[in-house]
From TrEMBL:
PANTHER family: HYPOXIA-INDUCIBLE FACTOR 1 ALPHA INHIBITOR-RELATED, HYPOXIA-INDUCIBLE FACTOR 1-ALPHA INHIBITOR
Protein name, per record: Cupin-like domain-containing protein
InterPro entries in the record: Cupin_8, JmjC_dom
Gene3D superfamilies the UniProt entry points to: Cupin (2.60.120.650)
Domain JmjC as annotated: residue spans: 227-373
Domain of life: Bacteria
Organism the protein comes from: Mesobacterium hydrothermale
């Protein structure tokens, strides 16, 4: 399953560009036989630009560069170097990364290609293998419901994490309580906080984002592209201005990596987060509206077709919301369980559990913290 570690340093920019093309090619998968072309332009070295053509494998072409392509991506050489230096934890939602790149054309192709150039660490693989063995030994694929715990102690939470067992915690809320929050209150309190960065030319403050949500509610659409066209922050960094109101309800802030914001409006039949798993234990606090999570145990990875190229989280090719059993036949055997989170409830989801998330109400808001250990 592992894709070999890439180099981290190059003798020249030209070598880094060649390494980047090879990174895309070796990380590429195309089980659904998508056909398309993406032009990659490096502004500091325009003569080293290339076209990535989708086939059964990814073809890197450097001839006829003036021809039309489905997608155009402009990426600075400094960002290419950074991709290699940070491949184990590179997050495309990071404004310092996505904020340097411009995209035009078919954004779904750009999203597909972005997933080809990240790489997992040996540590992440070991975490997932451990979770798979534990879930198999405990028979978690046969679970039919998620346990609820009312006001548990930190010791109980640690025991849950050790057993790799998902639970919903009730009876605890931040101050002010979740029931008091609305998108208008968010816009008023954090109006100038930057909540979403989509490219070098597209970033939004809370006030701007809330306006987009209201526009979407008035004129909804279904044509959404993960990472680009969706009225949802998709786990963007929680602005520091919001930390005091949505801090972790257990342990210390230093025990978690920086929190993430999941705010927006998404139709109930479209996942807010597609099927994936994380190598860290997640604490998901539901703030506005309800969410449903569909969970699959880690020992079912051979049934739901996880991608080979990943780092912070591992997406799956299989889409439970639109199953294609001709392409993904083993998925017929997968067993999942569902849980609904209400405002003020907290899901503890141990590392390795595959999950897909739906917003049952719009607008919707959650805040997540990942246990760093």
């Amino acid at each position: 399953m592992n894709v070999a570690y890439p180099s981290s340093e190059f003798e020249s920019d030209l070598a880094a560009i060649e390494g980047f093309a090879d990174l895309l090619r070796t990380g590429f998968e195309n089980p659904e036989s998508i056909r398309g072309t993406v032009r990659i332009t490096i502004p500091e070295h325009p003569d080293q630009s290339f076209i990535a053509r989708y086939g059964e494998e990814l073809f890197i072409e450097r001839h006829d560069m003036d021809r039309e392509t489905d997608t155009q991506v402009v990426i600075p050489i400094a960002t290419i170097h950074r991709i290699f230096n940070e491949f184990e934890f590179l997050d495309w939602r990071d404004p310092a990364i996505i904020g340097t790149i411009t995209f035009t054309g078919n954004l779904a192709y750009a999203n597909h290609l972005a997933k080809s150039c990240i790489r997992l660490s040996n540590w992440t693989m070991a975490r997932f293998r451990k979770a798979g063995r534990l879930h198999a030994a405990k028979g978690y694929r046969n679970l039919t419901e998620v346990e609820y715990l009312n006001q548990p102690t930190q010791r109980q939470i640690l025991e849950v994490m050790e057993e790799s067992r998902p639970v919903v915690i009730t009876g605890l809320e931040p101050t002010p309580p979740c029931r008091d929050w609305t998108i208008d209150k968010l816009s008023e309190r954090y109006s100038d906080a930057v909540v979403r960065v989509r490219s070098a030319t597209h970033r939004q403050t809370m006030a701007e984002f809330v306006k987009e949500l209201k526009d979407f509610e008035a004129n909804p659409y279904d044509d959404m592209i993960e990472g680009f066209v969706k009225p949802y922050t998709e786990g963007a960094n929680l602005p520091e201005e919001m930390w005091a109101d949505f801090g972790p309800l257990f342990f210390d802030r230093e025990d978690f990596i920086p929190p993430q914001l999941w705010l927006g409006s998404v139709p109930t039949h479209i996942p807010t987060s597609s099927l994936h798993r994380d190598p860290l234990t997640g604490f998901l606090l539901q703030v506005i509206g309800r969410k449903r999570l569909d969970l699959y145990s880690a020992d079912q990875e051979n049934l739901i077709y996880p991608m080979k190229s990943y780092n912070n989280y591992q997406p799956c090719w299989f889409k439970p919301e639109a199953p294609d059993f001709n392409i993904y036949p083993k998925a017929r055997e997968a067993k999942g369980l569902s849980v609904t989170l209400n405002p003020g409830e907290l899901l503890v989801q141990p590392a390795g559990w595959f999950h897909q998330v739906y917003a049952l109400d719009s607008p919707n808001m959650s805040v997540s913290y990942f246990w760093r250990y």
